[in-house]
Amino acid sequence: MLEVEGISLHYGAAVALRGVSVKAVAGSVTAILGRNGVGKTSLLRAIVGAHPISNGAIRWEGKEISKLPAYERAKRGIAWVPQGRDIFPLLTVQENLETGFAVLPRGKRRVPDEIFDLFPILKTMLKRRGGDLSGGQQQQLAIGRALVMGPRLLVLDEPTEGIQPSIIKDIGRVIELLRGRGDMAILLVEQYYDFAHELAQTLAVMDRGVVVVAGARDDLDKEDVRRHLSV
Fold it and tell me: Which of 195, 191, 218 is nearest to 205 (CA)?
């Protein structure tokens, strides 16, 4: 389980997060919703170690990780697919996938066949450079690279952004399959409400650096959630 408890985060004098708490458990998707600029990406950066928190606590599998650097969190099974994908444009698809080896012991450094079962297009493009792929293909590559690490927590920052509808469906299918395995917690940041509502068991809506609505998906009023997203 991931437990984020009352964290705050600052960029200089600017407050990005104020007392934010969320949880994510194995076999489940937790979706963080909100308009642009409300702190969703800052929350993910705090969880993966890309930016220090000012106060509060982040626990993963029962252990406090707030002070650990990002690479140590990655070694503990936390994988991040950032907004914008951040694949290496001059490396091939194969080489991009192999960058996921960095946190693995030498004996486990291989690209699992499962990656190509989930994203068959990647197998046909192994020798192509990442920068030559379409946006949707790059997103599949970014998720595949994260999965090479064998994560127990998968953190996805707006995986549907700028992606054609057919690939959005493919990505949704993959998230559903990963959730169904029961051994991975998934934290999903989204603006696309219908996509998040279909996949997530727990929703949290952010506004101005705080969580304003949170709970089990089926316990929340859809119109109330939508209202917070459209104001």
Answer: 191
Residue stretches of the chain with pLDDT short of 50: none
Domain that holds residue 109: 2-230
Global pTM reads: 0.94
Classify residue 218 as exposed, middle or buried by CB count within 10 Å of its CB (0-12, 13-18, 19+). exposed
Question: Residue 22: what pLDDT?
Answer: 97
Q: What is the count of structural domains for the chain?
A: 1
pLDDT of residue 192: 87
The CATH number of the domain where 78 resides is what? 3.40.50.300
Distance (Å, rounded) from C-alpha 151 to C-alpha 136? 22
- pLDDT value for 70: 96
Q: What is the C-alpha separation between 217 and 212, in angstroms, rounded?
A: 14
Q: How far apart are CA 211 and CA 158, in angstroms?
A: 18
